[in-house]
UniProtKB/TrEMBL annotation:
Family: Belongs to the patatin family.
Domain characteristics, as noted in the entry: The nitrogen atoms of the two glycine residues in the GGXR motif define the oxyanion hole, and stabilize the oxyanion that forms during the nucleophilic attack by the catalytic serine during substrate cleavage.
Name of the molecule in the record: Patatin
Keywords for this protein: Hydrolase, Lipid degradation, Lipid metabolism, Plant defense
Amino acid sequence: MCLLTKTRFDVNMENEAVGGSSRVAMPPPNTGTLITILTIDGGGIRGIIPGVMLAYLESQLQELDGEDARIADYFDLIAGTSTGGLVTAMLAAPNEHKRPLYAAKDITPFYLQHSPKIFPQHGGPFAGLINLTKMINGPKYDGKYLHTLIKGLLGGTRLHDTLTAVVVPTFDIKTLQPVIFSSYEAKSRPDLDAELADICISTSAAPTFLPAHSFKNKDAQNNEREFNLIDGGVAANNPTLIAIGEVTKQVLLKHEDLFPIKPMDYDRFLVISLGTGNAKNEEKYNAKMAAKWGLLSWLTNNNSTPIIDAFNQASADMVDYHNFVVFKALHSDDKYLRIQDDTLTGNLASVDVSTKENLEGLVKVGEQLLEKPASKINLDKGVYEPIENGGTNKEALRRFAKVLSDERELRQSKASSRLV
């Protein structure tokens, strides 16, 4: 081999040769024609919606390549914010057999089981007052169950241990700077090679809902670096641009898995971006109303949190708009798929209403979204509109599954011949 360092593919080939993992990692992009990226938005319990999408995508990959196929076997990079960061870890963290911790079909049951304990609900006539009092005096939820769950799930697994590269954005409230945890940086930046549990707890620490998270990690000189982190949605609720930017950065740095791909060679990028749903634009707010709002009204109004909703939706939609325009301009729009539902109403639009009825409702939203037309954002109207000749989201995912399967087969063929 002419490479100076071993890739995940090389290590897995060696493991297979001595009776280890039965399914090798995705060979690197420099052995194929595409750079494959999966991204998952933040959105609390609405992580159920991309969970349904991922289960369908993985089922299509299994039809093509066998029942042991997993999402992480086909993507060079998986990026997730907040609840999307947790899903990213579930898909990419290794179990004791060096295979993904969770199959995609298990994500939705995970949310159905644990959401009521992460976000315990208060019933009765005073529920609203109780929640408001909590949010005035501190986060709405203490996060203890979530923290215990994540630490038990991920143990001491660190960023560099993931089966494919991952990117998870967070925001440091002390330095007022985004902190991007990237597998690509883990080797050269030991201070960023944190435990996945700490990363997931941090990226999901939504202001007013869950407490900020602090931890320390050591750099190359054994000096401790302290992190004071909150929800990655503050920096990027839709992490797609960060994911593309991270890959482009590594190309410029001549990463051995990516070089010699050209930095702006967007026709090499294949991106699936999964949203967690937006509230239907019912125009229930207007400037006249908002002009009178104080702090509390911006934090809680009509069963929603206007300030957080505005920031999250604005950033996510702008990222989608940018990506669609750029991929279209570079004649690569067939390699970019954004799946989002902007018709959520009532409790379905919340991030934390974890009643059995609402959680099951979100499952139905995901199932219905599969049958809806593939769409793109119209910023002028603030809604998603069907793409001409785009088919349904189910058809689009089936088409992308075939491309992913073909790309993996091509890489394996080239990589195997290289090792001979």
